[in-house]
Amino acid sequence: MQNKIIFITIAIVLMVALVGIYLALTPSKGLEESLKDLQEIAKKLDREIQLLSQRVAPYIYTGEAVSFVIEFENGTKFYFTGDTGLAADLKLIGDYYQPDVAFLPIGNIYTMGPKAAAFAASLINPAKYIVPTHFASFPELVKSPDQFFTEFKKYNLKAEPLKFEVGSEKEVIGIKVEWLGHSHWLFESPDGTRILIDPEVRYNPSFPKKYQELVRLEKIDLVLITHGHFDSMTLSDIRKWGQLFDPIFIAPYELGIWLKANLPAYKIIALGQGARITKEEMLKLGVSEEKIEKLSDIIINVVPAAHSSSATPEGIPVQY
Length: 320
Known about the structure:
Elements: H1 2-25, H2 31-55, E1 60-61, E2 66-71, E3 77-80, H3 89-97, E4 101-105, H4 114-124, E5 129-133, H5 146-153, E6 160-161, E7 169-172, E8 175-179, E9 185-188, E10 194-197, E11 222-224, H6 235-245, E12 248-252, H7 253-262, E13 268-271, E14 276-277, H8 279-284, H9 289-294, E15 299-304, E16 310-311
Parallel strand pairs: 3-4, 4-5, 5-6, 10-11, 11-12, 12-13
Antiparallel strand pairs: 1-16, 2-3, 2-15, 7-8, 8-9, 9-10, 14-15
């Protein structure tokens, strides 16, 4: 609304100025001819205003993106980096949490490409596996992990590269893992807690067709949201997950506060970078005992990611 007011004000000021200048410089022209010229000027001005409005992003800033280190009840640690770029934090997180498995974006353009991701893997140095993600979805992204695997081998790490196909499930150190396309994953802990990473479906071009009816996923206990970009979450899709499964949503602080204001019916926990949350702490933050009893003894650590975060208000068209 504020942008519209600014544009209208600019248009009025420019129109008045142009009329004054035009009349002052062309006194000899007839009124009809002058009006036609002014109409052409007005059309050009309208086109310029439309172009200007398209250059102003209608998105809402939602703080910084985050990553998650998930500690499962069997001791396995997954580091899901989210849509990150190269950063010194990767080594710090790797050294401190010592993850067994790291999930790294390789698609380029909006995150790291294959070469940078391989170097990032050397910084994290996971104990068991490295899994590429955020590729083979949108047209401009890297289509295959082959270059990443080639670059990865140069660092002689102890971890092994692990490739997933969309919609396929593997058991990784006791955790059931399924790739839902793009940068969306489903984890199931040994005791049955199901964790969805980034809940977007509509703007995930490679979401598995077998789950187009989301109810086929049967159960979702926790939804972890790394950032607000529309390929990671939209309000409409979060509503779908909420209505079907009533999960606990965990999001970075500013994004979480915005979600609370727009989706008050659902349990949304807003956490800052560096947070470490257990079932007991969720209970203190207002999660019902009934929900807590269904969760495994897992720990969610919120850690930094080198990426931006903004949310798209409902009704605004999105572009990738």
